[in-house]
Design a protein that fits this description.
By secondary structure, this protein is α/β, with parallel strands linked by helices. It has helices spanning 15-24, 38-48, 56-61, 77-86, 101-114, 128-138, 158-162, 170-173, 183-193, 289-303, 306-324, 332-351; strands spanning 4-9, 28-34, 51-52, 67-70, 90-93, 118-120, 145-153, 196-204, 216-223, 228-234, 242-249, 254-261, 277-281, 355-356.
């Protein structure tokens, strides 16, 4: 089997999940890392038996690294990704693709200019329960999707925000629950229901006075298909409850997934506590399958390391796309759609009116309405 020389840019807590995945995959020859902090890179490289490089360009020129994963804080994604593209390396960017549309467009443009493959991490798309919903929609089992909902009721405490100096700040993190915790569920909503026409939303910081960013956001959406949607995401419920995405069809059938249950996992700090399962399934003639699928998905969860396994599945898809010259399941354009959704919520809250899609970058120093 052909192997791709792989590397990581950014050596924070989440990068360890990617390093383990890169070591496990037969398509990957994990070879090197880069961090703006040389000591951090050296420590990380020693742990995984790879080389620490002094620059992104050196990874390609001297290390022969062909593909990298960007694991830096969100506002730094664009700098690293663009430089990696320019150096001729394929790039997989941790979610979200960037914290602004301007940065998204810079990354996408660089990938096109230098002819490299670009992907965005959204490993929940590879959950069996999540893919089951996509297949049901594609096969017409619920008719036309007419209503979609995202409900994420999580919790982040003071210790979480103090674990890194960039957390909870506009400049360091780019946003709060919308930018850090909710992108997975926002991605699934648009994947299931298609292009968005219009969105109206609000955001607020309700019970985390020691951070700058939002801990809660709500929105209503109208899709170009005529379907409607609702988003409710929050880090304000202790203990954390769940994250769910539900889709309701024109024939009256409803399907859904609980992507997260109980305490939401924090990369490098905690583990996934409950298996992702289908929690709703009323497709005529298939109602009895719900418990069977729940048992199968729970059994899989207990056999694997769920923190690494689904990252492996996404990275495997990305590397196979490079080898075959095809598109990965979650490419740069798909990643931009999630950024477009949370940007629309920030702008709508600022302007107190609906936001029409598609969105383009805007000038100004209020960071799309985040700095009120």
């Amino acid at each position: 089997m052909d192997r791709i020389k792989t590397g990581i840019i950014g050596c924070g807590k989440g990068a360890h999940l990617h390093a383990q995945a890169l070591q496990n995959l037969p398509q990957s020859a994990f070879s090197g890392v880069y961090s703006r902090n040389p000591q951090t890179a050296e420590t990380f490289a020693k742990q995984y038996g790879v080389r620490a490089y002094g620059s992104i360009e050196e990874m390609a020129d001297k290390g022969g690294i062909e593909a990298v994963i960007i694991c830096t804080p969100h506002p730094a994604h664009a700098e690293g990704a663009v430089r990696a593209c320019r150096a001729g390396m394929h790039v997989l960017v941790e979610k979200p693709l960037a914290s602004s549309l301007q940065d998204c467009d810079a990354i996408i443009a660089a990938a096109k200019e230098y002819g490299v493959t670009l992907g965005t991490v959204s490993q929940r798309r590879f959950y069996p329960a999540v893919q089951r919903i996509k297949r049901a929609i594609d096969e017409g089992k619920i008719g036309t999707p007419i209503l979609g909902t995202v409900t994420m009721l999580g919790w982040r405490d003071r210790a979480y925000y103090q674990s890194n100096p960039w957390r909870g700040t506009w400049d360091g993190e780019g946003g709060g629950v919308l930018v850090n915790q909710a992108p997975h569920q926002l991605d699934l909503l648009q994947w299931y229901l298609g292009p968005i026409d219009e969105l109206f939303g609000y955001w607020a910081n309700l019970n985390h006075p020691y951070i700058e960013v939002e801990d809660t956001a709500v929105a209503v959406l109208k899709f170009k298909s005529g379907a409607l949607g609702q988003i409710l995401v929050s880090n304000s419920q202790s203990p954390a409850l769940y994250a769910k995405v539900h889709v309701h069809g024109k024939n009256g059938a409803s399907i859904g997934v609980q992507t997260d249950g109980g305490a939401m996992f924090i990369a490098g700090m905690s583990s996934i506590t409950e298996p992702p399962i289908n929690d709703l399934w009323t497709v005529p003639g298939e109602e009895h399958l719900l418990r069977k699928w729940q048992a199968e998905d729970t059994a899989l969860f207990e056999r694997i390391n769920p923190m690494v396994y689904f990252h492996e599945r996404q990275i495997e898809d990305f590397l196979e796309a490079i080898l075959r010259g095809t598109k990965p399941l979650v490419d740069g354009e798909e990643g931009r759609k999630t950024v477009e959704i949370f940007t629309a919520i920030y702008r709508s809250n600022r302007d107190r009116k609906p936001v029409k899609f598609p969105l383009t970058p805007e000038e100004g120093d209020d960071f799309d309405g985040r700095r009120l």
